[in-house]
Design goal:
Structural class of chain B: alpha/beta
Distance between the termini of chain A: 28 Å
Strand content of chain B: 5-15%
Helix content of chain A: 25-40%
Shape of chain B: globular
Largest interface: A-B, 61 and 53 residues
Structural class of chain A: alpha+beta
Radius of gyration of chain B: 18 Å
Number of helices of chain A: 8
Oligomer: heterodimer
Strand content of chain A: 25-35%
Largest sheet of chain B: 6 strands, mixed
Number of domains of chain B: 1
Number of domains of chain A: 2
Largest sheet of chain A: 6 strands, antiparallel
Number of strands of chain B: 6
Shape of chain A: globular
Distance between the termini of chain B: 40 Å
Number of strands of chain A: 20
Strand order of the largest sheet of chain B: 2-3-1-4-5-6
Number of helices of chain B: 8
């Protein structure tokens, strides 16, 4: 399986320090559980877009998000295009909880498309919950004809990013496009559109897939009371999220998240994060409260495994409003970070 | 040896202790970005007599220009060390800013020699790097494909894993004693975990204590800034750094 992923799916990081990141045990969901997740993710997508539109119409709200001024100045209503979000769900005894949305450049395509498909081939009675890479190809086909050059813009010096783009390139190529993995400076905008500006090509670009992330602000929930958008699904699933100045961080019931953190890097959970690091985070949140949020801790439900307990996170992809697959991760502690393992997310096949 | 998967299996032998750390990038891209070729490569002989003996609880880090590091790694296989290629630069059909074609060809042409070495599965590791991975500080021009790369703690086994497999010291084989910014951060972590870190020249000369105080405030901050600019250590999505100007690498240039 590991080798198939390396050579068929360009999985170039199957090992992270001492952790073999590919979990041998898939997560198999009941059909009703997946239907619930999929419907919820699509509702969250619609609510998120409505919120974005409202915030962009009311620029004063942007200042509350903790975004750098340069980014705020650059924000504008999105031109027509493909929109992808990934909503991260966690099982708890009270039902699903949402920890965040990756609303800009979510990753996990190799795992959600490639890994899950390979595992499903050896898991009788199970099927995948979707294929986000195929979803992207399908969505692009609504905008550009077959044969078009698709610039896959990413940080070319990072194998972690490049592997995703090479995987997507193979899938887009199979769908009839001409994918070009390039860096941001390899695309030049001219009057008649975009054109490649690299040593190996000057071709016109039909579409750009940006895998060079901007940011998603974790202070978004702090705006909710000022928004007219009702956000019922968000309010139901996201734990209370507040400015860290409003709570006692030492009572053990709050998680700290840096506004610009990602892959668990800027997340502190009391009792799980090393005490020294937790103290540093609390100090940083005290000095720079606008760079942090405090989120009410929830008790993740862990599944028992041979090696202990797996705490799970299911990132559900939604592409242009339709659910497109899921990226599973598991960790031995209730914190999903860079040490988490990848888990194939499958669902029971319908009875014949 | 002309099948990329068989080639990978040879360098990352199933069951060998250190195989999980072999970086798959170059192997995975052979045939496509890299022509799989057994073209003759000029020979470079190494005298490995002065290197620490196997059984001394030593892991080696070969921090030399890629081709030299790889040749030394295979020469050390005859001494009982298992070469573990950690090349993580992304190849490009156009060559890229840090060309990796020659290293890929060597992976092919040295495979037979490695196969004949008969190393035991638990042979101590010689981690093979390319000292030119950051192109000596040069910056790519706008049209070039930026495939510089760095090493991170996640690319190596931890100090506790090394210790649990009998490794008590790491010897960095390189020219000079100044250890690269990214590598010094990795090694400082190992030293903190109780592993002795030494540096030695490639001619087998005496090893000396590595100066890891160079993981000092300035170098550490520089390294962290580089990392923070692009924090992506897995494909989980997103990032957490400020990018002053979008460049291919996300590095300040």
């Amino acid at each position: 399986m590991r080798r198939r992923l390396i050579f068929d799916c360009r999985k170039w990081d199957p090992q992270t320090q001492d952790v073999a990141v590919l979990s041998p045990a898939p997560l198999v969901l009941r059909r009703h559980a997946w239907r619930e997740l999929a419907g919820t993710a699509e509702a969250l997508f619609a609510e998120s877009l409505a919120c974005e539109e409202e915030i962009l119409r009311r620029p004063r709200l942007l200042a509350s998000l903790g975004l750098p001024r340069g980014i705020v100045r650059a924000l504008a209503p999105s031109p027509p295009g493909v929109r992808i979000m990934r909503f991260d769900f966690h099982p708890t005894r009270e039902g699903w909880r949402l920890s965040e949305v990756n609303a800009d450049v979510p990753g996990g395509y190799i795992e959600a498309s490639g890994f899950s498909t390979l595992v499903s081939e050896v898991a009788p009675g199970c099927v995948t919950v979707g294929d986000p890479a195929a979803g992207i190809a399908g969505a692009l086909a609504r905008f550009v004809p077959p044969g078009s050059v698709v610039a896959l813009v990413h940080a070319t010096a990072y194998a972690d990013d490049a592997q995703v783009m090479r995987f997507l390139a193979a899938r887009l190529s199979a769908a009839g496009f001409r994918p070009m993995p390039v860096g941001p400076r390899h695309v030049r905008w001219e009057q008649d559109g975009a054109r490649l500006a690299c040593a190996w090509s000057r071709e016109a670009v039909g579409a750009v897939v940006r895998f060079f992330p901007a940011e998603w602000p974790k202070r978004f929930p702090l705006l909710w009371e000022q928004l007219r958008s009702p956000l019922p699904t968000w309010r139901r699933l996201l734990p209370p999220t507040v400015d860290p100045r409003e709570v006692r961080l030492d009572d053990g019931t709050w998680v700290l998240k840096s506004v610009l953190g990602r892959v668990g890097d800027g997340v502190g959970v009391p009792g799980i994060t090393a005490p020294e690091r937790w103290r540093k985070m609390c100090r940083a949140a005290s000095f720079h409260p606008r760079a942090w949020v405090a989120q009410r801790r929830f008790e993740s439900w862990g599944r028992a495994t041979d090696g202990g307990t797996d705490h799970l996170c299911i990132g559900v992809f939604v592409i242009d409003g339709r659910v497109a697959g899921a990226y599973g991760r598991a960790a031995g502690r209730a914190l999903i970070d860079a040490e988490a393992r990848d888990v194939a997310v499958l669902v029971e096949a319908e009875a014949a | 040896m002309n099948d990329r998967e068989s080639l990978f299996d040879l360098w990352a032998l199933d069951g060998a202790t250190w195989s999980p750390w072999v970086k798959p990038v170059l192997f995975s891209e052979m045939d496509e970005s890299l022509p799989l070729s057994t073209a003759y490569e000029e020979r470079e002989s190494w005298d490995t007599l002065g290197f620490p003996s196997v059984g001394s609880g030593t892991a080696l880090v070969l921090e030399l220009p890629g081709k030299s590091a790889l040749r030394l790694g295979v020469a050390l296989a005859r001494r009982g060390y298992r070469p573990v290629p950690l090349f993580n630069g992304v190849p490009h059909p156009d060559g890229g800013f840090v060309p990796s074609g020659a290293i890929a060809r060597l992976l092919v042409s040295l495979a037979g020699e490695l196969a004949q070495s008969g190393l035991p599965l638990d042979a101590p590791p010689a981690f093979v790097l390319d000292a030119d991975r950051m192109a000596g500080g040069r910056v790519p021009t706008p049209g070039e494909f930026d495939n510089r790369w760095m090493v991170f703690p996640q690319d190596f086994p931890s100090a506790s894993f090394l210790a649990s497999h009998g490794i008590r010291r790491i010897v960095v084989i390189q020219r000079g004693t100044w250890i690269a910014d990214d590598l010094v951060e990795v090694l400082a972590g190992h030293a903190k975990g109780g592993i002795e870190v030494l540096v030695a020249p490639p001619d087998g000369g005496p090893a000396q204590q590595a100066d890891l105080s160079k993981a000092s405030w300035f170098r550490s901050m520089f390294y962290r800034a580089m990392v923070l600019l692009r924090l992506r250590r897995s494909s989980a999505g997103g990032f957490g750094g400020r990018v002053p100007e979008p460049r291919q690498s996300g590095f300040y240039a």
